[in-house]
Amino acid sequence: MLFRQLFDEESFTYTYLFGCAETGQAVLLDPVLETMDRDLRVLQALNLRLAYTLETHIHADHVTSARKLKAQTGSRIAGPAMDALPCIDFGVAEDRPLTVGTITLRPLFTPGHTDTHHSYLLTEGDTQRVFTGDALLIDGCGRTDFQNGDSVTLYRSVHEKLFALPNETLIYPAHDYQQRHVSSIAQEKARNPRLGGKSMGEFQEIMANLKLPYPKKMGYAVPANQDCGKCPADLPETIRRLCDPSLQG
């Protein structure tokens, strides 16, 4: 398998590329509109054809490039089936993994940051990786104060789904704000300041007192991502010019 961790410096988002060496097919997890050209260059350099884009959840801090990539490359769009988005070609669920060539991404339903959030488990030989989206970050976790988020639900998702994985499982989050790239289940159990060794009550108190500002792109990113990255008419000009005019609402 070919694997790349790619980074958007504006939204601090990690996009993950998975390539099947046997078939030349690839998947991009959580792609970002502004970095689409970079992602296409990486695919070309690796001699890969994009088969699917895949989302962990409906993002509030960036617009996905899923729809534009589909128009440009013929790729299909995958995401949580329970979102019931008409623009999704393949709805993933715990009993419906996404398989491309020799790569299988197994969904884990991990709500709490949003109510339909999914993580993805990937096993390659003796190495197991979990792509946790915003459910579990390195020394942190996603917020729970909008998009039907709920701290009790997130606590249970992390402890019952993610912390139940083997300790050596590698954790790749959707974001990091301190240039960290990877963690492990053992590390987050031991030292995550919000979730490691904390009771549910302690976690609820921590999350209730974060007092974070809303993401600056939330007003247009959420509706755009509910249509797989279709550009609404009121997008800022700096974002609008990235979109194909035929895809604008």
UniProtKB/TrEMBL annotation:
InterPro entries: Metallo-B-lactamas, Mito_Persulfide_Diox, POD-like_MBL-fold, RibonucZ/Hydroxyglut_hydro. GO terms for molecular function: hydrolase activity; metal ion binding; sulfur dioxygenase activity. Pfam families: Lactamase_B. Keywords: Hydrolase, Metal-binding. GO terms for biological process: glutathione metabolic process; hydrogen sulfide metabolic process. Residues 12-175 form the Metallo-beta-lactamase domain. It comes from the Bacteria. This is MBL fold metallo-hydrolase. It comes from Acidithiobacillus ferrianus.
